[in-house]
Specification:
alpha+beta, 2 domains, eight-stranded antiparallel sheet, two-stranded parallel sheet, 4 helices, 19% helix, 29% strand, YfeY-like_sf, signal
């Protein structure tokens, strides 16, 4: 009877430890995006995303053409990530575009977040104005966020002048969530 109790206690202890571990399948950190690590080589992507589908032009990657994107799809067909390889002799991933809203940063920011959420969690290094969007670069982070100018007040939509954080509406939605590993 004591042996059964010990086994039961051991099994409950292991179950509670597993339930306390954080699921990192869709977690974005400074050095990882889900199972993808900053040090992952392009040649390792098939094993890293073994349960997903990888679409890439292997010839272009072997020739060092870093303009070729690698797309990661869930088995059901949902587009998860678009990866840009580096042009190194042994290519790793240089840039990641997050396409699935289940991916969130350690601070809880994802594609369904707003500018207010970003502003609450990050200090800004700079805000870059482009023709159709603004790009927000947080201090001390590999993440960056793009907001479409259609989310801005009409007087700011067609300007290429610098846009300040105070001019961006709190409810402006993230268009692109990117991770840059250089």
């Amino acid at each position: 009877m004591k042996r059964t109790t010990k086994i039961l206690v051991l099994m409950l202890g292991m179950a509670s430890i597993q339930s306390c571990q954080k699921d990192t399948t869709f977690l974005i950190t400074e050095n990882s995006v889900g199972p993808l690590l900053q040090t992952t080589k392009v040649s390792e992507l098939e094993s890293v995303f073994a349960h997903d589908s990888i679409v890439q032009d292997t010839t272009a990657i072997k020739l060092g053409d870093s303009n070729k994107k690698i797309e990661v799809f869930e088995k059901g067909g949902k587009h998860l990530l678009t990866l840009t390889p580096s042009s190194d002799s042994i290519p790793t991933i240089e840039n990641i575009r997050i396409l699935d809203p289940r991916y969130v940063s350690e601070n809880g920011i994802g594609l369904q977040s707003t500018f207010k959420d970003i502003e609450k969690m990050y200090k800004f290094k700079k805000i870059v104005t482009t023709l159709n969007s603004i790009v927000i670069f947080p201090k001390g982070s590999n993440l960056y966020f793009t907001i479409d100018k259609q989310e801005l007040p009409s007087e700011l939509r067609f300007t290429t002048s610098t846009i300040e954080a105070v001019q961006i509406p709190e409810d402006a939605k993230i268009k692109y969530l990117m991770v840059g590993w250089e």
